[in-house]
Every structure is written in C-alpha cells, then in structure tokens.
Amino acid sequence: MNKLEQAKRKLERLNNTQNQLQDSIHREREMIPFGQPNILGRRNIYAPINKKVARARKLLVEQEQQEDRVEMLEKVERFKVQNELIQDVAVVGRSGAASVGARTSVNNLEYFKQQLKELEEANEKAKAYNKTKPAIKAATYGTKITQLKNKIKSLESMKERDEKKTLSPKTEQLIASGSVVQWKKKPIYYFVKGLRKVALEIDENGNFFPSKRYYPYSEEDKKAVETLLN
Fold it and tell me: How far apart are CA 199 and CA 221, in angstroms?
C-alpha cells in the first residue's frame, strides 16, 4: 500500500467517525426536551453532548488536514506519471497547492540528462531564431544549462565515489550495526543515528571522517562522533 492509498484510507476512517459522531449528537439532542434547563445541584444534562460537539470540531480540523494531504499526494502521483524518469520527488507544501519537482538525487540522473538534452535543443533553436534579427528575441537558456550541467556533474561524481569506495573493517562494522545510515539520494553521506543532520563520508582508505557539509558543530555531537570513530 503506497502513501496515497494509506492517506485515503485514513480520510475514510475520519469521515466515518465524524458521521457516527454527528448521528450520536443528533440522537442525544432529541432525547432532551426542547428548552429543558439544567437543574441546580444535578448533573449537567448537556455535558455529554457538549463533549461530543467539541470532539467533532477537533475531528473536523483533522479531516481538513487529511484532505489537504490526499490532494498533495494525488498531485505527486500525477507528476510521477507525467515524468517516468523521476524516482525521487521533492515536495514543498502540504496541500494540493504544493510545489512538486525532481529532487537532487543520483536516482534522478537520467531525468536530469533528458532535461539537459531538451534544454540544449531549445536553446539552439532560440539562438538560430535570434540570428534572423526578429523584433522580439526568443529567450535562451544558457544559465539554466550551466546550472543543470553542474548538478549532473556533482551527482555523477557522488555516484562514482560510492561505486568505487572501499570499506575498512571498522567502517563495515558501523554500517552493519546501523550506527550510520547511508543516504540513498546522495550516497556519499552516512548520517549518524541519533544525531540531527550529522553525517560522515568515506576517505580513500575506506575510513569514515566527519562530512564538512553535515559537520558535528556542537560539542555534544563532536564527542559522539569521536566516540563512534575511535
């Protein structure tokens, strides 16, 4: 079961719970005579209904949030169908208005290469058109092409480093024990379990060292990494 199916099932459960709650509130209200006041010194006859109404309001907020999540996941699924080469999706936002794109990941290399090919073709057409000296020039894509080439180069370098790496016995032991977890999207990084955004990389001798990008800045994190590596 994928995330979208799970989200839809949860929304269905929330809707069913809300319907049952509303039915229960309606039945209990009908059992109380119209205009019946509370009697001083006795139990509040409206307390059970008020409690259920409060629960229903809270549940309504959860329903709306879950509806937003379903809309977002449906948008992600449509994006994947339209872009078959994309393996890892980047999502910014939690509703149907979320921004969806390709994550910078080695798993998306083929997609980025295809994008580069299409961009270069469009750029050549634009340049050829501009040579005819039109009144309004066509937009060219030199900057975007350079950025995309740099992204591809960086990802290919990561992929090659990962494929050619050697592991020392200590490194193998740390990976096998689950003390570090490899980031599949950028496989040169191994995040340290229990620490926030602290990662290690592997040197040419197969040993771990603290990553400059995800460095352990706090003294507590530094000590944890030092203990792990020694």
Answer: 11
Cβ neighbourhood burial of 11 (10 Å; 0-12, 13-18, 19+): middle
Provide the CA 68 distance to its chain's centre, in angstroms.
Answer: 15
How are strands ordered across the β-sheet holding 180-182? 180-182, 190-192, 199-202, 208-210
How many Cβ atoms from other residues are within 10 Å of residue 60's Cβ? 13
Rounded Cα distance, 195 and 210, in Å: 13
Antiparallel, parallel or unpaired: β 180-182 and 208-210: unpaired
User: Phi and psi of 158, rounded to 5°?
Assistant: -60, -45
Domain boundaries, the chain: 3-103, 109-164, 169-229
CA distances for 155 relative to 111, 150, 151, 174, 184, angstroms: 12, 9, 6, 25, 12
pLDDT tens-digit profile, the chain (230 residues): 799 999 999 999 999 999 999 999 998 888 776 656 665 656 766 788 889 999 999 999 999 999 999 999 999 999 999 999 999 999 999 898 999 999 999 999 999 999 999 999 999 999 999 999 999 999 999 999 999 999 999 999 999 999 999 999 999 999 999 999 999 999 999 999 999 999 999 999 999 999 999 999 999 999 999 999 99
